[in-house]
Amino acid sequence: MNIGFLGCSKIGVKIIEALKANPDVTLYGCAARDEAKAIDYKNKHGFLHLYKSYKDLVSDPNIDLVYISTLISSHYEDTKLALEHGKNCLVEKAFTVNSKEAEELIRISNNKNLFLGEAIWTRYMPSRKMINEILGSGIIGDIYMLSANLSYKIDDQERLIKKSMGGGILLDVGVYPINFAFMVLGSDYQSFKSSLIYKNHGVEETCVINLFYKNGIVANLYSSMNGNSDRSGYIYGTNGYLRVDNINNPSEIEIYTPNTPGEKDMILQNKIHIREDVNGYEYQFYEAILAIKSNVNEPISMPHAETLKVMKLIDKIKSSSFIVNN
After folding, report:
1. Global pTM?
2. Whole-angstrom distance, CA of residue 321 vs CA of residue 308
3. Burial of 129 (0-12, 13-18, 19+ CB in 10 A)
């Protein structure tokens, strides 16, 4: 399958590493707004073709799938261009700036019978199935609470601190705790509360979200660009809990339960190490390629309905949160 890169990004370099391990994939061509950057990208990573513009890339009939990793603020425009030229698309997270843009892109893809998927890698990773299988075994009992945090010291990055570039912590980092909760608990929460902290740049730098579910479960989600956290996810049950190391790219799952029923102290009973085929980015492409070959318009692991629920929650958080300005 011939893949075209619309945008020559840093994240794309990791994608290239994953794709080069797939014999069914050809790095067919790339394009960037900066032609010099595109030339360097092509030569460094072995693309067959270079395009002077995004329109030239999406007009090439030999490209089967377009991977889009431009600024979040450009995702709608760039993806729409590709779809309108008949291209299947895999779009980096966050899918768009808001749910209205996401709905329009999904409408176009369905009308044209084209594949369109969000490339949020954690949705496609084997770790997701492993976590669900452990929870399904009943070893920690009934879930009553979840927490997840993801924070980095990245408040000096232009794309994060400029609103015009789709900046703010929610779209770039906050999507991961939200998706972690949705993958474990489902996306049909009953209500939510949230707080956004604005400090220096006119965009939210820290976000705290509480999701409440009808069955009494609560999810506490944290994200920030002001410092580094342990990036862990915890799933608490009536008989124990799981700790997932690094919700952005899980490396291990720890299972804690008491040695005997009724004990208060929880002991590490098992540690499961997670191994990936390449680097974790390969799975979203496995699924995209299979969907295209099967004439399916959306990924199984991240269907359009789930992308929209994430985007709509973010819309609500941005419009109704308790805001603190420092």
Report:
1. 0.96
2. 19
3. exposed
